[in-house]
Amino acid sequence: MKKMRYAGFGIRLLAFILDLIILYLPCYLVVYGIEWLTKMTEWEAVAMIAAVAIKVYCDSTYGATPGKRICNLRIVDANGSFVSMPVALFRYIVEMISFILFIGFLIMLGDEKKQTYHDRKAETYVIKV
């Protein structure tokens, strides 16, 4: 098996920012437009669920979200394979905890394999391809 080249903080941050622009922003713009037109406020939950579903689908099907793909990164398991949908969903849920506490992302700075808290819990790696 080919040696994995782990992705560091900077490139992963760039991929996250690209995902905000490519993935999350359009979902929220569409939803806020619908809210404005219909005066219904329940649409925010729909946007969040849609964004999460797209992220989990991309992570499990392509091994990366659009931002990670642009940055030539991939989420893999210990064997270098794409993660399953349940693993991608679990990773996302724990990622939200990492995001809220932020310490989950800082952990990777001292980690040889550059794993965040959610990577460790889901037994995943973000690698350069």
Number of helices: 6
- Order of strands across the widest beta sheet? 1-2
Gyration radius (Cα, Å) is 15 Å
What is the average of the pLDDT values? 88
Order of helices and strands: HHHEHHHE
How far apart lie the N and C ends? Answer: 14 Å
Task: Describe the protein's topology.
Layout lengths: L8 H30 L4 H19 L4 H5 L2 E4 L8 H17 L1 H4 L10 H6 L2 E4 L1
Antiparallel strand pairs: 1-2
Helix pairs in contact: 1-2, 2-4
What does this structure look like?
By secondary structure, the chain is mainly alpha-helical. The protein has one domain. It contains six helices and two strands; from the N terminus they run H-H-H-E-H-H-H-E. The protein has a two-stranded antiparallel sheet. The radius of gyration is 15 Å and the shape is elongated. The mean pLDDT is 88.
Quick gist of this model?
Helices cover 63% and strands 6% of the residues.
